[in-house]
Amino acid sequence: TQEEIDVIETAVNRKTLLASEEIFISGTTSEVMPVTEVDGQTIRTGHPGPVTKKIATAFQRHVAIFRSKTA
C-alpha cells in the first residue's frame, strides 16, 4: 500500500535539524530509528513522533510481506 507521506530528501544545517518536529534515520541495518536528541538537545517531546511511527509500522509491514514471499 502507499502511505501517502510526502518526502523531501535534502541536506539540512544544524539549526534546521534542531528545530525539526521529528527526526529519524533509515537504512538496511537500522530500519527506521527515531532520533530524539541531537548534541544533548531534545527534539520536540523526546519521543518518536506520529510520522516516524507510521513509517516504522509501514516498513515492518513491507518487510513481513517480503519475508512471507521468500520463505
Describe the model:
- The chain is α+β, with helices and mostly antiparallel strands.
- Helices cover 37% and strands 20% of the residues.
- The protein has two helices and four strands.
- The strands form two sheets. The chain has a two-stranded antiparallel ribbon with strand order 1-2.
- Strand 3 and strand 4 form a beta hairpin.
- The chain is elongated and about 45 Å long.
- The mean pLDDT is 91.
Helix content: 25-40%
Distance, first to last CA: 21 Å
Number of strands: 4
**Major sheet attributes:** 2 strands, antiparallel
Shape: elongated
The main sheet orders its strands as: 1-2
Uncertain segments are: none
Key attributes of the depicted protein:
single chain; 71 residues; alpha+beta; two-stranded antiparallel ribbon; 2 helices; 37% helix; 20% strand
Summary?
Helices cover 37% and strands 20% of the residues. It is elongated, with a radius of gyration of 14 Å. A hairpin with a 2-residue loop joins strand 3 and strand 4.
Layout of strands and helices, then pairs:
Elements: H1 14-18, E1 23-27, E2 31-35, E3 37-38, E4 41-42, H2 50-70
Antiparallel strand pairs: 1-2, 3-4
